[in-house]
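TA notes. Do not distribute before section.
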Amino acid sequence: MAGSALIWSPTFGYLVDVSGTRQVPYLFGLTLLFASMTIFTAAHSVPWYMAARALQGAATAMVTVAGLAIVTDAVDKRKLGQMIGYVGTAMTLGFVSGPLLGGIVFEIGGFYAVCGMAFMIITLDLLLRLAVVEKRVAAKWLTETERAFIAESNNSSELPYGTEVHGNGTIKVIKQDGTFALFNLLKQRRILISLWAIIVSNVVVSAFDATLTIFVQKLFHWDVLGAGLIFLPGASAAIFQPFFGYLSDRLGSRIIAFTGFTLLSIPLISLRLVNQNTALHITILCIILGSVGLCVDLSEPALMVEIQRVLDDMETKDPGVFGEKGAIAQAFSLHSMAHFGGLALGPIVGGFVSFHFGWDAMTLALGILALVTAVPMLWLSGAKGEEGSGDAERRPLLAD
């Protein structure tokens, strides 16, 4: 699934940007998800299961990219980190509650009951999405004076890319078609640094997903339930993502991401302290895993905010560079690629190192990787200046 999402993310990002609305691509993604569940429910062979999972990955890529674009369109850019934090919390709760609800329903009603629950959730999502009116659609109903007032009150940050507000209150939209912006984005150093950090954070998470259950089964002799519950300390840290996003909005991406990856190395390397089957070591393991989750969640909103800031800076330097419809979905498709790439790579790296060199070597390697990754975070942007001070206060600390 992760491989399919990785492949389709850039294509779907472009389609979301060039379409007249975010709603149609989002609904298309949900339709793909519905189709994948239909195949999965009816499948009775491995090839069909693989086809369903591949289609599910493509649907996940479309829904993720379109959903992030919708959020970015709807909120004040000065509060984007906090809102992305809410999205991150919701996603984590979904990942955690999915297996739990699926297990309970499977125990009560069997396989087809689980599939029925999935169909109901997708249908509910479709209905909720149809009830949403996007900002770019609602803007068509406003007069030029109303649009100018909104633009001035938000420093023109709420209008689409390529929109100019003139002194007489009129609005001029630079009429350009949507552009394929991925290659242009990949030339930006801050984008590349952010993508690398996203890959590393997801490698850490997925490496634990692949090896932690084996570790606790060998050391503590836990059954499947205990091995599943051990992920809760790390996942529960996601409730702090909105606060971490708020810090990113106020302090900038640089200090938050640097702090997150620097601190992440400490609990990762400290996992070697857990080596006995005692209540004390179980407690230490839970505390360390909670600390890992906190550090990963601390960095996530900051990295996504940085991607948006790079777009803003590019548009300020060259108005209309991305056309009338902007390139936010394409930018977040790069984030999606890095996210799913890390999820696909993590189990391979974690499993290989753990199998050949042991658990301690794997956690040490991940800790060193996190510490090394903290260094390029110094090239990200700092805190935004006070109102009207421009972007001078958020220039990278280590600039060319």
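Switch to the second chain here.
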Amino acid sequence: MKNEEITFENVIEKTLEKVKHYEKESQYFIRPLQNNCVYELLVNDFPVYKDYGIEKLGTPININGVILQSGPQTVTVRLYPLGDALKRAYGEGETITTLLPKTEMKIKVVKYEAFNISDELEDEIVVKEHTSPAKEDSEEFEGAGLPYYEYTFTFNAEVPYKNEGWSNGENLTKFEKNELEGKVLSYYKMYKKLHADKKLDNIIRLEFDQELRKSRALYKSRQDIEDVWNEYKSEFDFQNLEYQPIENYELSFYGNGKVVCLKFPSKEPVDRRHRGKGAFWFKFKRSVNGSKRARWTNIYLYLPKGQPLDSLQMIP
């Protein structure tokens, strides 16, 4: 196993050793504003946010974790019909199965230069504004009448760090699907067993590289890093964990084919409880009041270039 020297006792110090701070610590965010649709957002072909309801997002989405280095970045917008979102929100309304003519998505990409982000709007620098495409010579949404619509635009980012991430991975879409799916499923089952056996140090070793990437990209403080690893530990304090079967999933690719995971479907027909979530999940009882809850975990895998398929590992 990678990172064999890492344990819960030293992971905070090991992370801090590799997190640098800079005079300017740029942080990038997305502000989406949707109308007549639900959606998913990806940056550099990696999922950063999903919303299958109709409420407008008040807080912008930090995307530094998937900006690996300075240069052009892509934003992919996946739009879905409202389905029964109106009915769920208001208790009435029809089920909408195709995108409407008045569907619209407006997105701002913004950045802050300061490390301590101010709530003052004037501190926000607008990097890019983009609106979903309309039909030529018309205000009607280009994807009206479709059950799904996707489009991509780009913006430039300047960050002081450089993360390798999954950029040096193999294109997993070139492997035989059944063989790849079998290897991915085996990894999930291995992770599930480690989790069930409360092997905290082993879980931390698997997760270390990707959490380090995010810590570097977000210029995290000691307290931020402590919070991350304490959250992992807290899962082992849950009561009466009930691990659910890993089934009814899709083999899904991200990172331009270099990242793979098992997730529940996003497109209709869907199970509302699981829509777009990771296929590894469990139920548990909260120690506070004994109520039953559920937690889903995304396990994103990649294959370092030149390695055999048995070497699938969590993305760094």
